[in-house]
Amino acid sequence: MIRRLLVANRGEIARRIFATCRAVGVETVAVYSIADTDSPYVAEADYAVQLPGSAPSATYLRGDLILAAARKTGADAIHPGYGFLAENADFAAMVTDAGLTWVGPPAKIISVMASKIDAKALLAEAEVPVLPSWTDPSAVDEYPVLVKAAIGGGGRGMRIVRDAESLGEAVSSARREAFGAFGDSTVFCERYVEQARHIEVQIVADQHGNIVTLGERECSIQRRHQKIIEEAPSPAVSPELRENLCAAAVLVAEAIGYVGIGTVEFLLSPDGEFYFLEMNTRLQVEHPVTECVTGFDLVRLQMYLAEGGQLPFASAPPMRGHSIEVRLCAEDPASNWLPATGQVHRFAVPEVSAQFRPMLQPGIRVDSGVEPGTVVGVHYDSLLAKLVAWAPTRYEAARMLAGTLARTRIHGLVTNRDLLVRVLRHPAFLTGQIDTGLLDRQPEVFAPLLSSVEAVRLSCLAAALAAAAGRRAAAPVQRGIPSGWRNVPTGAQTVVYDGPAGPVEVGYRLDGTGALAQWWVRAVDPEELDLAGLGQVGPVDDHPPVAVVSAAPDEVVLDVAGIRLALHVHEVGETAYVDSAEGSLALRRLPRFPEPVQELEEGSLTAPLPGAVGRVLVAPGQRVGAGDLLLTLEAMKLEHPVHAPADGVVAAVTVRPGVLVDTGALLAVLTPA
């Protein structure tokens, strides 16, 4: 029996496993890097051991250090979570050789399925349908193909290639990314199927030869080949297709003698044919949707199987309703999915029914790796939290999840929240007409929720009124005087904010009773009027009348043409976060008398995100063409290229490999041709 469990992972999945351990009476041990010292999961463990350093290669990928932590704390079992060492056969063998219980399949099974190349060859012999592939990229003779890392998952080390000219660089880039994430640079090429769906089957197998499937999951909404929305069951899977998929998954498990919880992934083509992709010999990120529709705690089941238990059921129970999960990530979808870093100032999800464990009745579940105050850095994955809805029908689940996401207050970081809401509300999603290329065909989902000009103006006005109310509340004397009182009645209060489309000026004038007599929101630079979409707003009769019902430092209630709208304002330093039923907006207050800043010389290339400089491919004096790769940045386990914006000559390179840079740091200077 497991008494004390060490989780060889971090963040959200560590908290998820700890929750089940508390429920069943198992003591917990956390390991953490220096960067994770203040992470929530560390405080939730009964014991915690620091691993020296912050980089994954120096911490969570060091099996020897993790085993030393287990011995030091008296742990008798290790759960790997997902990612890092979860599918590392050598680490699994180290754990069992040390006399500890490994919560996962045996090392020899992980080894068999660790390489996608070997797994495909093995299962092709077992007559499981597979796609054509090439282990030697130079032998590829048809396009498009998908370059894939042979080891690991999570979409890392994947590149779509549509012609022979692009293959070499795609293979090189995929190899570097795969090595950085998994310590193995082996890649292969596989036929790429357009408009395919990603379907996976959850399997459970005990040490007594019993294998049961727990239905399928649809994971087709992806970015960068990484899933961001998953659901169970799939809207595309009929009872007959489900039976065939589950039978193929059992065939895979039987072919390798699988033990434990695992996932068999398939590609479903538009013509209804399916092909084996890979097998994940671990818990999946999207396991909560299966927990919702089956009622099983899969982490608890993992531990039970690791203790040698026999499956208490002979077949899968019928699925209960529908469940959808979204991955809330620190990234900017509109800027090529650039990851974001910073401190989480507020993270508040309304109407939460459960955290980190199955629900007893329909509702919203949240599995989060962050809390207010958590700092998100460049070292690890961008996943912040998973929000899961469970409802009687798919439409109800989508509506519930979209509404909850829209009302969630997330301050301090740029996230993909608005995109997730728009996808959940999109007709293509609601009708189940989805595939892995949906985001490429629906650019409208990248628009912010707060997209109407009038809503943006009202949010700006609310930020200014809340700030004034805050100043009055903090005033040492005469707090009762109306904010903005002037001897000269034509005087107005103004403030300049840096908004999503550039600087805007907010002005307003109150009458003697404190009522709003006039207000405007206009772009500071007349040349940016179209860009900002605001223009100048004159007297109040130029647009629907607005009355201030109440104004407090944290909430402003406006009456807009007879309709009341509450806007919640949260100020952190110079930034105001405004949340309403329309959406969210972050506004940074600009100083009235800004300090002069040094102008960058023409042709300067700056870092689009914080990270470590990877490769530097150019030198001063070198000629480059538009689109040429100049250097790379590494952040959140991904490689981000920096290309030449135009033809020119490299005048200077100001960084070297391995150096950490912040957003906006000067990388190189290019003299245009």
Automatic annotation (TrEMBL):
Keywords: ATP-binding, Biotin, Ligase, Nucleotide-binding
Keyword RNA-binding: no
Gene3D superfamilies: 2.40.50.100, ATP-grasp fold, B domain
Keyword Ligase: yes
Entry cofactors: biotin
Domain of life of the organism encoding this protein: Bacteria
A matching Pfam family: BT_MCC_alpha
Domain Biotin carboxylation: 1-444
CDD domains: biotinyl_domain (cd06850)
PANTHER family reported in the protein's UniProt record: BIOTIN CARBOXYLASE, CARBOXYLASE:PYRUVATE/ACETYL-COA/PROPIONYL-COA CARBOXYLASE
Name of this chain's protein: Acetyl/propionyl-CoA carboxylase subuit alpha
